[in-house]
Specification:
The chain is of the alpha/beta class and 284 residues long. Helices cover 33% and strands 28% of the residues. The strands form two sheets. It has a seven-stranded mixed β-sheet. It has a seven-stranded mixed β-sheet with strand order 7-8-9-10-11-12-13. Helix 8 (200-210) runs antiparallel to helix 9. The radius of gyration is 18 Å and the shape is globular. The chain binds zinc ion (2 copies). One zinc ion (ZN) binds at residues 64, 66, 153, 156, 176.
Length: 284
């Protein structure tokens, strides 16, 4: 299995529109491990379409508890379980992830109990472990090292950028954040930086469409980065490739790939990928 990043869901925010992309989730295949980063709506379908056997899942990371990053965590685990999952899965998430998981299992208690009794399945509550993390080293096992950096995504305080390293390979996810210069150190020299991005021109059009105008715009400007900001982080960190992801807006027919490229080229001259659902980026 060659190492690769698959962008399963590339839009920012939880809304779905006809023909549009899905909320945040990614697959990182590195050193034979299938690692899921964020579980927005669509993650299960995305993983299956990417050729992943759900029974083989073993590591899941959640950057923060906004619904566009965590809504489908429970359904993903449950679907993997009904697909035959029989080996442990470790979920790493910010404080509150355990609460989400316990309540999900309570909500699904009827189905879980009946499948254990009727189909002889192992208890999903024992197969899945949830570990809540803060800033610093999250995982170090079999050569895989994962570190977290708290980013600036108000009003959410527990939102973490993640750096994955194995051997000489490294991939960094910014998570959701306003322009945040401390990311430069965490992303330094990475093969791939997956950074969230908004496009200025699209924000006003988006706000007009969505309804709760002024408040939404205030949130976006305080909590998210423009494409040019992502380019600055990538340039200062000297990464090998920048992937613009968690795109806002992601489904405006008047905003296309050339608009994103033009916006980021002011600050980033290196290799560039604009995320689309299902897009594969090889980790050379
Ligand atoms: Zn988000
Ligand atoms: Zn968020």
């Amino acid at each position: 299995m060659s190492d690769r990043l698959v962008l399963l869901g590339s839009k920012g925010g939880p809304a779905l529109r006809p023909g549009g992309p899905w909320p945040s989730s990614s697959l990182l295949e590195i050193a034979g491990r299938a690692i899921v980063v964020d579980c927005g709506l669509g993650v299960t379908r995305g993983l299956v379409d990417a050729g992943i056997d759900l029974k083989a899942l073993d590591l899941i990371f959640i950057t923060h508890l906004h619904s566009d990053h965590v809504l489908e965590l429970g359904p993903l685990m449950h679907t993997a379980w009904t697909a035959g999952l029989a080996t442990p899965v470790a979920v790493f998430g910010p404080p509150g992830t355990g609460h989400y998981w316990r309540r999900f299992c309570q909500a699904m208690e009827f189905d879980i109990e009946i499948r254990i009794a009727d189909e002889g399945r192992p208890d999903i509550r024992e197969l899945v472990s949830v570990e809540e993390f803060g800033e610093g080293q999250v995982v170090q096992q079999n050569g895989l090292k994962v570190t977290a950096l708290r980013v600036d995504h108000p009003p959410v305080t527990d939102c973490f950028a993640l750096r994955f390293e194995h051997g000489s390979k490294s991939v960094v996810f910014s998570a959701d954040t306003v322009f945040f210069p401390p990311l430069v150190d965490v992303a330094a020299g990475a093969d791939i930086l997956v950074h969230e991005a908004m496009l200025e021109r699209g924000i006003d059009r988006l706000v007009a469409r969505t309804g709760n105008g002024a408040r939404l715009k205030e949130h976006l400007l305080a909590s998210h980065s423009f494409a040019g900001d992502a380019g600055r982080i990538a340039s200062d960190a000297g990464v090998k490739r920048l992937v613009l992801n968690h795109l806002i807006p992601a489904d405006d027919p008047e905003i296309n790939e050339p608009d994103w490229i033009a916006a980021v080229r002011k600050t980033w001259a290196g290799d560039l990928t604009i995320a689309r659902d299902g897009l594969v980026v090889e980790l050379a």
